[in-house]
Write a structure and sequence with these properties.
Helix content is 60%, strand content 8%. It is an alpha/beta fold and 636 residues long.
């Protein structure tokens, strides 16, 4: 079969794969659009503080928040510090004095005693202390109070969870608000203690949005994780996955619960103090609109210098509610995503498209024979993996990484030509290049379409490779195409060239740029550059979905410039910057927790804005070239 004919077959496979990806993505978009309900929760501890300083009851404050859009309350499991107005601590030598004569002889040296006059609270404390503290609890009775003795110091007691405030939770429920309980971890967890702690939540199961965990390690992980899953399943509530707060055991628990998970975004009590209301509002809104967070914990900046905590907080909630409604979201009882339909046939066909593109890429760099051989080997392996369902999730990640590497490199290599192009032709080739890269983006968005990726339990693997490998492939292809058999000699000549100050400065600039590029290519980026935060906020406000800087400010302008100049080795950096934009385009769709339509709009905005800036750049460079030619200073 001639090269032309087998390439036509490969492109046919790529088109079939794109159509298959379209089927999967259609199902994914339907799933995402069907889950538009968000829950807004306030932290009960802040509600209590606002109520105390406003001269109102917590119930009255909750009603006012409800009128503005709040429909849930976060209740953290209480600690001894939270209960200091209801419980007082005494060491053994002081407790002796407080107890009646009949109980003084039972006081144990080294114990700490918790005193309370609330019988129901005493019962709750006894339950949790018995299940969370080795050695049990000593119960002593006084005149109108109960004393609970434990073999721990007050310092050791401070982080022990002591259950939830039932009366306050009942007030919230009676006000028509949903409940978000957050359980603390404890030492010596076992199946019985897990059951005792979670049993107290059974009365609220119909009102619970999601069960949250407070610490970096789930209670019972790893030995009793299956027991925890069974108890949560019995409770019939989803668990909350808090964004940017990894918790050991939570992903495994989510899988045991068949992905009955709600994504949660929360700004911490300390962090909210450093944010302006506008910044906090933008962050919460983007978390819901662009990252599928469906439970939003709203906290307020209760700074001492503020004039009116209550009304400022109510105004913030009102603005947040309006922003969410403008985004097409509905405030209600958030629920987990429905299962996404899955077909190994569509996944298989998409994988064939990735393999076909890989063969085309190798042919484009002059390795046609190796491409065909590797393509056939890949076909056999992929067919076996999908057919036998062996390590399919892992291989889907491998295929997604392959698409992220192959398509940007293929797109720009096929656009490369030593001949300068007219502006019209350069625009057309840029659009064609973008379309080829976009095929790879579609493949990734489809091949990783799964609830575990939507919930970010799983993630695209190999981000650094996806950002670096296409640049290396293009550089090698450019040298081979330009130099042919002289490529080796040319490279040796470069390496033997005399070192000049200009080369050292250029190398330093490239090194710094490369480090910055890599540091900002992961799933968790580094801090923003000066003024970048303001630019991002402005673009978000104007364009709804902010385009990526690497696309509109670097990629498209320099790709357009490179095409208008034609390939020369001295323009290699321009071509690589153009390729960075294509890499970024594909990478945008590897973040499956971002709704597909948001990624699509972000890509479109990056394209038109980047082309506009590219036209400005090319026009400016052409004007400069004309001027330098008149002065006989243009190098050619």
């Amino acid at each position: 079969m001639s090269r032309w004919h087998y390439q036509r077959v490969l492109w046919a496979l790529i088109i079939i794969a794109a159509l298959s990806a379209g089927v999967v993505i259609t199902n994914r978009v339907r799933l995402e659009e069907a889950n538009r309900t968000v829950t807004l929760a306030v932290d009960f501890q802040q509600v209590q503080k606002i109520a105390r300083w406003s001269g109102l009851t917590t119930g009255e404050v909750l009603q006012r928040f409800k009128q503005r859009g709040i429909n849930a309350v976060l209740f953290k499991e209480q600690t001894i510090d939270d209960l200091k107005q209801q419980v007082w601590l005494q060491p053994a030598d002081q407790a002796v004095v407080s107890l009646p004569a009949s109980e003084r002889g039972r006081v144990r040296p080294g114990y700490t005693y918790l005193f309370t006059g609330d019988a129901s609270l005493a019962a709750r404390l006894a339950l949790h202390l018995q299940n969370k503290i080795p050695g049990g609890v000593q119960v002593l009775a006084g005149d109108g109070f109960t004393a609970l003795g434990v073999p721990l110091s007050p310092e050791e007691l401070k982080d022990v969870g002591l259950g939830f405030p039932e009366k306050e939770m009942a007030v919230a429920r009676d006000a028509g608000l949903l409940i978000v309980p957050q359980v603390r971890s404890w030492y010596g967890v076992n199946a019985n203690s897990l059951a005792a702690v979670l049993k107290s939540l059974e009365a609220y199961r119909d009102d619970i949005v999601a069960l949250l965990f407070n610490d970096k390690r789930l209670p019972g992980y790893p030995l009793y994780l299956s027991d925890l899953a069974a108890l949560v399943e019995e409770l019939q509530v989803p668990v909350g996955l808090i964004e940017f707060f990894p918790q050991q055991g939570l992903n495994q628990l989510a899988l045991l619960l068949d992905k009955k998970v709600v994504r949660v975004h929360s700004i911490g009590s300390d962090e909210i103090m450093s944010l302006t209301p506008a910044a906090a509002l933008e962050r919460l809104e983007l978390a819901a609109r662009e990252r599928n967070n469906r439970l939003l914990i709203v906290r307020f900046n209760l700074a001492p210098a503020s004039n009116d905590w209550l009304n400022d907080s109510l105004a913030f909630v009102g603005k947040f509610r309006t922003a969410l409604m403008n985004d097409g979201l509905v405030i209600g009882h958030a629920v987990p995503f429905a299962p996404l339909p899955f077909s190994r046939l569509w996944i298989y066909l998409i994988g064939l498209g990735v393999l076909a593109a890989g063969v085309l890429l190798l042919a484009a760099v002059g390795l046609s024979g190796a491409g065909v051989l590797l393509g056939l080997l890949g076909l056999g392996a992929w067919t076996g993996v999908v057919g036998l369902n062996i390590q399919l999730l892992f291989m889907r990640k491998v295929m997604a990484l392959g698409a992220a590497v192959v398509f940007p490199a293929l797109a720009v290599i096929t656009a490369m030509s030593p001949s300068p192009r007219s502006l019209k032709a350069a625009l057309a080739v840029t659009l064609r290049t973008t379309l080829i890269s976009f095929l790879g983006a579609l493949y990734i968005a489809a091949i990783l379409a799964d609830n575990t990726f939507i919930l970010k339990i799983n993630e695209f693997s190999g981000v650094k490779v996806a950002f670096v490998a296409p640049l290396l492939i293009f550089t090698a292809a450019a040298i081979l195409r330009q130099e042919g058999e002289k490529a080796g000699a040319t490279i040796r000549g470069w390496l033997d060239a005399n070192l000049t100050v200009k080369l050292v400065l250029l190398a330093a600039v490239v090194a710094v740029g490369g480090l910055l590029y890599l540091s900002r290519s992961g799933n968790e980026g580094v801090g923003l550059l000066p003024l970048e935060g303001q630019m991002r906020s402005f673009l978000t406000d104007v364009l709804f979905a902010r385009p990526r800087t690497k696309e509109f400010l670097l990629g498209y302008p320099f790709l357009l410039l490179s095409l208008s100049l034609g390939y020369r080795h001295r323009f290699l950096l321009f071509w690589l910057l153009g390729l960075v934009g294509q890499i970024s385009l594909v990478n945008t769709f590897s973040h499956i927790h971002i709704p597909f339509l948001i990624s699509l709009l972000r890509t479109f905005n990056g394209l038109w804005l980047g082309l506009f800036l590219g036209l400005v750049l090319v026009t400016a460079v052409n004007s400069l070239r004309a001027y330098l030619r008149r002065k006989e200073a243009w190098p050619g």
